[in-house]
């Protein structure tokens, strides 16, 4: 649980009376460090210029110079990972749009305080925040260069983390998704958002993919030898799918590692397919013939989803987390998840619900009859050597989750 006496909370609101109520309520709940700004730009300057570590932000939507929506975008750009609360008098429909926007931007949206703010509402929100996984803001730093990425590949500084995928009806672990990280000496772990874009611009993404594939095959072979049979998913880019020898590369590497091609899932983001679907059709078809499994990732976030399902023989459909987390109390999101599930079922595809972040999400996707689940409620991405230990912990959790969920679904 967080120590509120050392927590750093930022209030961004141009209404002095609202700021006063928030400050008083936060202090009453034990928050030690509170900073208030009437201007969002000044708040950003504080966060970036002073390398401030901010745990929680409470901000208005309607502010001079920079409104709350633009402020959200700037927070996403600098990699803010603390909690976010909207303080607003806007109607419920606007708040719902703002919530969806925050989640698409991968911000940790905790909820809304309605104006005029009541101290009891602030106290309730603080209790909610205390139950969330502590997330801390990482200040923006100098961008990485292409040469630094080349050195990272050569020095084997890239590492794979793995996030499990489990069967919803049984809790059985059936696969993991490989997610690359950069373990940079004297710096620490660098998230892919900091370097993947640079790699794409400078034509380095193919090298990264092949590096990640090699690591994933090594780890899968080790798990096989330990008696753990899980599929491994690897994200592939448009550059990878434009390489005509990519299927041969994968077939050679899997055979050399002693791993069946059917145990490898290639995740393709829907938006990439939209750019030039016919250009990648040959490579995807040949991969399919070599028995590699294909997954369409972030389903529903593009505009040609059904055309992709028609033209390409996918094995798996991953419903984007922006439609899953919180769907239990959002009829529109429920309709999207359930509609995706029905389409996939008719096409003989497995449905993976991404973004299962809490018990409510878990119970919803079970009721929606999704096949697989992935998200922080199950496990965070982890280094390969932690998977076997996590499996023991998960097996201990499963009986309670499945039994309780079955009772609720009856």
Helix content: 40-55%
Distance between the termini: 35 Å
Oligomer: single chain
- CATH architecture annotation name of the largest domain: Alpha-Beta Barrel
What class would the helix/strand composition place it in?
A: alpha/beta
Q: Write down the overall geometry.
A: globular
Low-confidence stretches: 133-140
Tell me the CATH superfamily of the largest domain.
EAL domain
Mean pLDDT metric: 85
Strand order of the largest sheet: 6-7-9-10-11-12-13-14
Key structural traits:
410 residues; Rossmann fold; single chain; TIM Barrel; 5-stranded parallel β-sheet; globular; 8-stranded mixed beta barrel; 17 helices; alpha/beta
Please tell me about this protein's structure:
The chain has 410 residues and is of the alpha/beta class. The protein folds into 2 domains: 124 residues, Rossmann fold (3-Layer(aba) Sandwich); 264 residues, EAL domain (TIM Barrel). 46% of the residues lie in helices and 20% in strands. It contains 17 helices and 15 strands. The protein has an 8-stranded mixed β-barrel with strand order 6-7-9-10-11-12-13-14. Strands 2-1-3-4-5 form a 5-stranded parallel sheet, with helices on both faces. Helix 1 crosses helix 5 and helix 8 runs parallel beside helix 10. It is globular.
């Amino acid at each position: 649980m967080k120590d509120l006496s050392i927590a750093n909370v930022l209030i961004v609101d141009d209404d002095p009376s609202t700021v006063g109520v928030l400050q008083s309520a936060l202090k009453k709940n034990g928050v030690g460090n509170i900073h208030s700004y009437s201007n969002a730009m000044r708040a950003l300057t504080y966060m970036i210029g002073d390398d401030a570590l901010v745990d929680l932000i409470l901000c208005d939507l309607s502010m001079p110079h920079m409104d709350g929506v633009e402020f959200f975008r700037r927070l996403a750009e600098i990699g803010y990972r603390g909690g976010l609360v909207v303080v607003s008098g806007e109607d419920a429909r606007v708040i719902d749009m703002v919530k969806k926007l925050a989640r698409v931007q991968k911000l940790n949206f905790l909820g809304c305080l309605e104006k005029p703010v009541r101290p009891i509402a602030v106290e309730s929100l603080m209790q909610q925040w205390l139950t969330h996984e502590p997330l801390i803001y990482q200040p923006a730093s100098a961008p990485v260069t292409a040469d630094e990425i080349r050195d990272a590949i050569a020095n084997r500084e890239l590492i794979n983390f793995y996030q499990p995928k489990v069967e919803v009806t049984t809790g059985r672990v059936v696969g993991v998704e490989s997610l690359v990280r950069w373990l940079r000496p004297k710096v620490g772990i660098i998230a892919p958002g900091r370097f993947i874009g640079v790699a794409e611009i400078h034509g380095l993404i193919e090298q990264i993919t092949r590096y990640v594939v090699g690591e994933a095959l090594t780890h899968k072979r080790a798990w096989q030898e330990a008696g753990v049979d899980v599929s491994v998913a690897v994200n592939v880019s448009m550059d990878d799918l434009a390489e005509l020898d990519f299927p041969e590369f994968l077939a050679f590497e899997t055979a050399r590692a002693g791993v069946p091609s059917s145990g490898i899932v290639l995740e393709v983001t829907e938006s990439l397919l939209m750019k030039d679907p016919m250009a990648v059709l040959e490579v995807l078809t040949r991969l399919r013939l070599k028995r590699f499994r294909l997954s369409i990732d972030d389903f529903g976030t593009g505009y040609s989803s059904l055309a992709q399902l028609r033209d390409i023989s996918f094995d798996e459909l991953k419903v984007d987390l922006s439609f899953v987390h919180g769907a239990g109390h959002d009829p529109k999101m429920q309709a999207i998840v359930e509609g995706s599930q029905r389409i996939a079922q008719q096409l003989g595809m497995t449905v993976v619900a991404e973004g299962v972040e809490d018990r409510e999400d878990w119970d919803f996707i079970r009721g929606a009859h999704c096949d697989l689940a992935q998200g922080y409620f199950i496990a965070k991405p982890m280094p390969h050597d932690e998977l076997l230990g996590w499996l023991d912990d998960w097996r201990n959790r499963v009986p309670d989750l499945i039994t309780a969920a079955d009772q609720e679904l009856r």
